[in-house]
Write a structure and sequence with these properties.
Shape: elongated
Number of strands: 18
Oligomer: single chain
Strand content: 35-45%
Low-confidence stretches: none
């Protein structure tokens, strides 16, 4: 039996996202395993892991909204923007609670963010954190990100805990540093847990110990087509199965929307994503991503 699906893993602190991939690969005896977006080694939380054929849809999960609980510690900044780096600067000034609330909430909306040097982004084929470890710092272009919502959980002295819902590509470490700079003081991220990625939630995530103790055939995985349920479903007659599987074009009526991606089903089997095209008033279905077979 070939296993395919997406597993919601609770990543512990101290392990990289690749470490989790290696763990799942070894535990299940499956080579095709991949994650859906790097989570910092010292961070914990939701890390969806694609297994088998599901690795073909990992890029669709990268675009999902993400939610975190983070703690900003005011008082000093570090080179890694978290609690594990070398201290760069200290500041004695700590703003009051009202000032902190105003600064934190001002980041809701579309903002520009400069990726940190200690990140997995590549420049000329080399990861930024590799350059940073060599003592190098290069100019990075800012990127548009969206902070959909911020909820301040508590403020205790120089520590600010908050929940944030954000778009892909958001660095919470950098968000913490930017908030501190807006308050005219130094700061860093002292704690981070990812509580949600798309439809994956912390309450449903499995620990590594739980994964070890569950038979692999019984692991609660999300199916591939369930991961793509934002796309409308299109059922094709059984007689066209071979045509579709061999990359052929299937004539369609005008009632199907042109340019829309559909989840294609045939013979009660999910085949993948396809879209309808119009050429000289002739409508046809073409598979964009075949998700059956190995």
């Amino acid at each position: 039996m070939k296993i395919a699906g997406v597993l919601n893993v609770l990543k512990p602190a101290g392990m990289s996202s690749h470490d989790i991939v290696y763990f799942v690969r070894r535990q299940l005896g499956i080579k095709k395993v991949g994650h859906t977006g790097t989570l910092d080694p010292y961070a914990t939380g939701v890390l969806p892991i694609c297994i088998g054929k599901a690795t073909k849809v990992s890029q669709f999960l990268l675009n999902e909204r993400k939610a975190y609980r983070a703690e900003l510690n005011l008082g000093y900044s570090t080179d890694t923007q978290d609690a594990y780096g070398e201290i760069l600067k200290r500041s004695e000034y700590i703003p009051n609670e009202e000032e902190i609330r105003e600064a934190v909430l001002s980041f809701v909306g579309e903002i520009d963010q400069v990726p940190p040097m200690y990140s997995a982004l590549k420049v000329n084929g080399k990861k930024l954190y590799e350059l940073a470890r060599e003592g190098k710092e290069i100019e990075r272009k800012s990127r548009k990100i969206t902070i959909h919502d911020i909820d301040i959980v508590k403020i205790e002295g120089q520590k600010v805990m908050f929940d944030v819902l954000c778009s892909k590509g958001t660095y919470i470490r950098t968000l913490c540093v930017d908030i501190a700079e807006k308050l005219n003081c130094s700061g860093h991220m002292s704690f981070l847990i990812r509580t949600q990625t798309g439809d994956f939630y912390l309450k449903d995530a499995l620990t590594l110990e739980e994964i070890e103790n569950i038979e692999k055939e019984e692991l609660p995985m999300r199916s591939i087509d369930d991961m793509l349920n934002e796309y409308p479903k299109l059922i094709v007659d059984d007689e066209y199965y071979s045509l579709i599987m061999n990359g052929g074009k299937l004539s369609m009526t005008k009632t199907v929307k042109v340019g829309v991606s559909y989840r294609i089903y045939c013979k009660d089997e999910f085949l993948g994503l396809g879209s309808v095209h119009n050429k000289e008033k002739q409508y046809f279905l073409k598979m964009d991503k075949l998700l059956v077979g190995e």
